[in-house]
């Protein structure tokens, strides 16, 4: 086997947990910015940066899963197609919540309204991550997918 033919060995379950942990931390930073009052007045631009960074990372993660990871899992484990369909529906719901948060930030909504948006995303995101980890980590331990983790799980 030549250097170019080597299959990349990736511990996909570890990669997924790592990305989820980084997204949880990014959400934590965003929530802290709200709690500290950084969302008031001119500092709303700081929250806008937190939001855009977090929202882009979460969206990129879900797009990579939908494009790369879930089709590979479905091919290897057709019995998980219903689970994958549910996870994709969660991605759509989270995208809708993110759009609401971004619109609220763009119009300089009150800190209380921004907090409600962030709390909604946090609740759905955490539920989604836990379900995804329960359903897929064992499968990911055996998944032979030759792909760049950044393409599959987002550029975190």
The sequence of SSEs as H and E is: HHHHH
Number of helices: 5
Characterize the overall form: elongated
Helix content: over 70%
Judged by helices, strands and strand pairing, the structural class is mainly alpha
Uncertain parts: 1-8
Main beta sheet, described?
none
Radius of gyration: 17 Å
Beta-strand percent range: under 5%
Count of DSSP E strands?
Answer: 0
Distance between the termini: 31 Å
Q: What would you say this structure looks like, in words?
A:
This protein has 156 residues and is mainly α. Helix content is 76%, strand content 0%. It is elongated and about 45 Å long. The relative contact order is 0.20. The N terminus is likely disordered.
Write the layout of secondary structure elements.
Elements: H1 12-35, H2 44-76, H3 81-106, H4 111-140, H5 149-153
Helix pairs in contact: 1-2, 1-4, 2-3, 3-4
Short structural description:
Helix content is 76%, strand content 0%.
Task: Name the features.
single chain, about 160 residues, mainly alpha
